[in-house]
TrEMBL record:
SUPFAM superfamilies: MFS general substrate transporter. It holds the Pfam family MFS_1. It is found in: Cell membrane. This is Nitrate/nitrite transporter NarK. It is a multi-pass membrane protein. It comes from Kribbella kalugense. PANTHER family: C-METHYLTRANSFERASE, MAJOR FACILITATOR SUPERFAMILY TRANSPORTER. The chain crosses the membrane at residues 12-33, 40-60, 159-177, 183-202, 232-253, 259-278, 290-310, 316-341, 362-379, 385-403. It comes from the Bacteria.
Length: 414
């Protein structure tokens, strides 16, 4: 049962401000545990592939793009299947289970690039399938006036897992003399525990469904007939095409500063810490001055990140500044872009519209990772980074041009 503040005395309302339903808390616990497992692998995958298996930057770009791009169309598919079958917990559980098994698949893949790519695609397939059903369960477990709080608590728990995952990986590598296999086994065990939490504590809502056509092909056609939506999707694709993967950024920092492999996962921790500290203030700022301005500011910070990777100074000041700016980039763009999109999307099609924007970003990201890997191989990492910075500058102007017709009123919360 959710805890509502309606028709309660003021003292009870005050105590209820931080409470959400048990189902939302259970889903948050599942996401927290699963993100520890996922980020353990994500944090070490770049060094495992390029230093441990000696992959070229071009091949790593293909694998890295697959890691994100594989979810591109599966968000829509997962939501549609869950709504049709009304078995949202089962679909989400299948996605979580698929990702857990993929961790063991990395052990079986050995040094085969094709097998590693296939296993990563399976892992990301699980993520794509579970996302929409999970978020739907959150809405069905919460009264409408408490949606913001419910999603806020869930995302907070999810981010705690993302913050802790690299730290766990560092501890395992230190205790096992850099044994990557030990990280993969531990990641599987933690992911399996997350699935167990889902099975035991998350309740399904098979008697309720969201409005018809919220996740359906007809909704996509209807959305793409709207000019502002088309421009927003195109802007998201342009922005995604000039954004290189986190792994590339961390690898370049590791090489520039000659960091020990055991410390490599802590680079992701630094970015996550910056994100945690800045996300809420920047979200409030976006509501006050305009969300598009904050998004464009975030991509400006990304330009600085790419330039500083081969900039005039190094050492710990470089690490602090780059990771701080990288967290600023994510805090300015990740949630704020969705907030910018919300008022442009009709309520009945909003889930599909947001999924469509995310799909465009994921497909573009696949292309950017491959192209950056090729540029690194052909021209070297310094030139590739500067080219990427120049392309982000161009993208900022293109995105501003595409979205300049969004009125101040449209940017305000719906």
């Amino acid at each position: 049962m959710y805890l509502s503040t309606i028709d309660r005395p003021k003292t009870a309302r005050g105590r209820a401000l931080f409470l959400v339903s048990g189902n939302v808390f259970a889903l948050g616990a599942v996401s927290l545990v699963t993100d520890i497992s996922s980020e353990m692998v994500t944090a070490i995958l770049p060094v495992y592939l390029m230093i441990g298996l000696h992959l070229s930057p071009a091949l790593y770009g293909v694998v890295d793009g697959t890691y994100t791009g594989a979810t591109a169309f599966l968000r829509l598919i997962g939501g549609y299947i869950a709504d049709r079958s009304r078995r949202r917990k089962a679909v989400a559980g299948f996605g979580y289970g698929l990702s857990a098994v993929a961790k063991l698949g990395l052990l079986a893949a050995g040094s085969s690039v094709g097998a590693i790519g296939a296993v990563i695609a399976i892992d990301r397939t699980g993520k794509g399938l579970r996302t929409a059903p999970r978020d739907t369960l959150i809405t069905l477990s919460t009264p409408p006036q408490l949606y913001g709080r419910a999603f806020g608590v869930h995302r907070m728990m999810d981010t705690i897992g993302a913050f802790a995952g690299p730290l766990v990986a560092v501890g395992i590598l230190a205790a096992t003399a850099q044994a990557y296999d030990a990280v993969f086994v531990a990641s599987f065990c933690i992911a399996a525990f997350g699935v167990l939490l889902l099975v035991l504590f998350v309740r399904d809502h098979r008697d309720k469904q969201p409005p018809k056509n919220t996740v359906a092909p007809s909704a996509l056609r209807e959305l793409l007939r709207r000019g502002p939506v088309r421009r927003l999707v195109l802007a998201a694709c342009v922005a995604g095409m000039v954004t290189i993967g986190d792994g590339f950024v961390y690898l370049l920092l590791q090489r520039r500063e000659d960091l020990s492999i055991g410390w490599f996962p802590l680079l992701a921790v630094g970015t996550n810490l910056s994100y945690l500290l800045l996300a809420t203030p920047l979200g409030i700022l976006a509501d006050k001055i305009g969300r598009l301005k904050v998004v464009l500011g975030g991509y400006t910070a990304l330009v600085l990140v790419y330039l500083l990777l081969f900039g005039p100074f190094g050492g710990w000041p470089l690490l602090v500044v780059v990771l701080g700016l990288y967290g600023l980039f994510y805090a300015s763009t990740d949630g704020v872009l969705m907030a910018l999109a919300g008022p442009l999307l009709p309520e009945g099609f909003r889930t599909t519209g947001i999924a469509l924007i995310q799909t465009g970003q994921a497909v573009s990201y696949l292309g950017s990772s491959i192209l950056f890997g090729l540029a690194w191989t052909i021209w070297g990492p310094a030139s590739a980074s500067r080219i990427a910075a120049g392309l982000v500058v161009a993208a900022v102007f293109v995105v501003a041009l595409l979205l300049r017709g969004i009125s101040p009123r449209t940017e305000q919360p719906a």
